[in-house]
Amino acid sequence: MHMNPPDLRPDLARARIPEERRDGQPTIGMVSLGCPKALVDSERILTRLRAEGYAISPDYTGADAVIVNTCGFLDSAKAESLEAIGEAIRENGRVIVTGCLGAEPEYITGAHPKVLAVTGPHQYESVLDAVHGAVPPSPDPFIDLLPASGVSLTPRHYSYLKISEGCNHKCKFCIIPDMRGKLVSRPAHAVFREAEKLVQAGVKELLVISQDTSAYGVDRKFAEERGHRAHITDLARDLGSLGAWVRLHYVYPYPHVRDLIPLMAEGLVLPYLDIPFQHAHPDTLKRMARPAAAARTLDEIAAWRAICPEITLRSTFIVGYPGETEAEFQTLLDWLDEAQLDRVGAFQYENVKGARANDLADHVPAEVKQDRFDRFMEKAQAISEAKLAAKIGTRIEVIVDEVDADGATCRTKADAPEIDGNLFIDEGFEDLKPGDIVTVTVDEAGEYDLWGRL
Question: Are 449 and 3 in contact (CB under 8 A)?
Answer without folding.
Answer: yes
